[in-house]
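Sanity check

After download, print the first record. It should look like this:
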Amino acid sequence: VGNKSTVVADTMNKIADEYKCKFVFGATSHQMKKHVFEGTKTIMPHQTEEHKAEEFEFEPNEVYGINVVMSTGDGKGKEMEVRHTVYKRAPDVTYLLKTAKARQFISEISKRYPALPFTLRAFEDQQMARLGVSEAKRHELLEEYTVLQEKKGNCVAQFKFTVLLLPGGAKKVTGLPLGEAEKNIVSSLSIQDEEIKKLLAQPANQSSKAKKKKEKGAKKEEGEAAA
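Expected structure tokens:
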């Protein structure tokens, strides 16, 4: 809380550089609200002159979905020539579709998936889904999730988690643990930056008691130094 989004993005890039990786372009993290999991506040580690995220300050009682996608390549994935099957309803666009199948398709989306993404496999009537998605895309009623690929020989890793910015500190509430992989997968590289080491040593879930104790210790050290 109180930090700038650009500071967080820069820190994420520094960590990636330590492991000689790049954040994948287009992989962004967003503020989350009720029925909105990709809000306007965006953290974008991999930016270009044409694509930049507006800087903002983190505030108490906000929720963020952190999406970490790193590549051993240049992080510029190319769209694969495969059929896209995951979509999300564009909430700000309305249009009365012409065919009955397309109208039925959009009506079902509005009932079952008004805010969250969905896969075409979720629809029992596949003919309706195929016809409906084609017409809905033409009129920009849907946002599609493209399938990207890195250059051959490069590796891509992704993990996601949700963070609550509470008055007493940050709290990680979702995200699968690495389990045995954390012990078995050992990198030949390691963090060398001392400031980043200190940052990563902090617990993911900060309690208000630990925060007050830390602040009290810092004030005590300042007092001793002044004396």
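If your output differs, re-run the checksum step. Summary of this record's structure: The longest helix spans residues 208-226.
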